[in-house]
Amino acid sequence: MRNLLPRIGFIDETSLKTNMAKTTGWSPRGARLIDHAPFGHWNTQTFIAALRHDRLDAPWVINGAMNGEMFDLYVETQLVPTLAPGDVIILDNLSSHKSPRAAQAMHTVGAWFLFLPPYSPDLNSKWPSPNSRP
Question: The Tc1-like transposase DDE domain covers which part of the protein (predicted)?
Answer without folding.
Answer: 8-124
